[in-house]
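Worked example 2:
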Amino acid sequence: MKKIILLIALLYSLTFSQQWNDLKQTTIQQLSLPIKMDVFTNSSGNHILIEASNGNIIYYNVNSSGIVDVTKTETIESNGDFPTITGSSDKIYIFYKIGTNIKMKYSTDGGGNWIYNSSLDRQINSSICNGIDAVYEDGLAGGIHLVWATNDNGSDYETYYYRLNTKVTPFQWVEGKNVTDVTNYQYGGNPSVAVSTNRVHISWNTNSGGFPLQGNANLRDRYNGVWQSPQPVVSGSEESGYEMLIVQGSTLYMFYTQFDFGSGENRWDMDFRTRSISGTVWSASTEITTAIALIPNSFNVVKSFDNVIHLACLKTSDVLIYYNSNSWNSFYEINSNPDPGMPTALTNISNDLFSFSWKPYDERYLMLRQYDAAPLTPTNFAGTTYNNHPKLTWTLNNGPDVAYEIHRKVSPLGEPAGTWQLLTDNVSASTSSYVDNGFEITGQHREGFAEYKIRARDSLPSYSPYTNSVSYTYYGVNKMIQYEADVFSLSQNYPNPFNPSTVISYSIPFEGSVRVRVFNTLGEIVSELVNQTQTAGEYQTTFDAGNLASGMYFYSIEAVSSDGSQNLKEVKKMLLQK
């Protein structure tokens, strides 16, 4: 008996809803219906593949503010089909069908350049295909797990599997298998693939006709290299349109669209079933919501770093995000006016989510909305040395909008313990080390102790917890570059370029009057952000340029000490890109 979950028209929690940034319109436009859209996110941005109505497969790189890096936009293929994208922290892999081949291209520089090796083309049995899916797995036995379905069994489809071993040079295709080669399970397509420890999970659907799809959903595991018996998951009167698999801890989920004949609407409802990773018994179906859009890619599912599953559903009048932190009875509206005929996508990195949908009808711009969770604490923070100076190292976060702050506490011998001070707040997302040339850590006379810790910061800005600290004994101080507790500084705004808001950080070494202003290229003041008396310390202010045109702007700080003895000024430039 199906368990019906009553939908409660509430937002997630207040905290959760406050972390959804505003809906942003990108410059990506598709006036004719694209057939498919797939998205993958890593530290170099949101990597978007769109199959346009003319068959062109186009790649875009979009940052968390919705700004498209036009230098990376590229038509990957003409007359291609079923584009799929996956990857790791530093690589992106694209797969698509053309003719009777599945081609693969990959990038090691965030989509700036694409590498293609024709010897890795995967020949398939028919030019008629109804689905490709791929997932990346790290580790020695990992690489890319690829599944596809071709029409090579009369009017029916069959599903195939290969693993692309990316741990060897050149890459190699290995472990090929016709997944639908068992009696009573000899056909099926629209495959989905997921991985867990020592297992590959593959689902397929028996429908071979037109759209909307209706058929039985089956699943087969590969465990430690051995193929297991297929399992029926959705069958009988409850038919599935298409499926997506995802693993959460020791549980395997199959999300699927159930075609509802009894409602009188001929609609798709959103359901799921579960089983243990190694099990054979599936739960009863659970309904999450009803009447989602009758198009491919009308739902997507991801799992965030905190092990919470998030489900995006495209309906006729909105895009809703559901999550299972406690139950499935909460949702958040991402877009109140999407195009119901265009696909949606959901991707994540760390605990950030990125939802993509389309502005409706005659405009059809791609819209982005981000759930901006606090960054994760940088890992593997350690202290080493470089040329007799402290050198800090850490493992990069995966987030696409992350920078790092380094804080230092200096305690000279014979003086009270120092306090933590910001050393720098603009270490880029691609930098995983920092050398403090202000101190020498060997010599004849010990002078004091220097202690360091770091944290990650995103564009909201939100901050990660600090790392543990590392300490050095220092023997010499470089007076030319020593960081003082009473430093005057104006940091580069973050993010930059920005749209529409950015954060400006500064520090002042005394109590006095402070003015922070923004100018256009004509020297006209467009905004006064700060005009008040402030004590010595570190500050931040946010500049919102929502009503300004794209272009270059300048921001300045002027600080005058209360006794009039010091008048400090600094100017930097920033780029507004709408």
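Confidence is low (pLDDT under 50) at residues 1-18, 479-485. The longest strand covers residues 143-153.
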